[in-house]
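Moderator note: this is an archived Q&A kept for reference. The question asked for a predicted structure of one protein chain; the sequence and the answer are reproduced below.
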Amino acid sequence: MQTRPNSDTDVKISDFGFAKRVLYPYSLRTQCGTEGYVAPEVLEHRPAYDVQCDIWSLGVVLYIMLGGYRPFRGEPREMIKQIRYGEYKFHKRYWKDVSDDAKHLITRMLTVNPALRITATLALQSDWILDEGGEEDEEYSDEEEE
């Protein structure tokens, strides 16, 4: 994807330090990841995990982008507990202007059980991703033009 000069909305995220090709389901076995972004199944020392752990991490990133703060915070032990049990909140103060569709997508991405977590394909078909802009977006565009 090409970025636009002077854009403050183009974002690229990458961290390939532990990248590995997933050739078949549940083929990943290394316990790795960045604190606060790592999926519960990686923390649980399960025998194996797969690409669904990336959906969790993307859910954390989306939460941060829309809410302005991390969903899992505190001392390392407390953070691990929050991740393992999927304990996070959409605090009204920061989330009042974020759509229910966006919050629903994050909730589906931050589902503790990877078998029940939304897949990348379904996430890309979510109402929030497919929304072409409603009345609110049009009003915002008009204000920018003035």
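Archived answer notes: The two ends are 30 Å apart (CA to CA).
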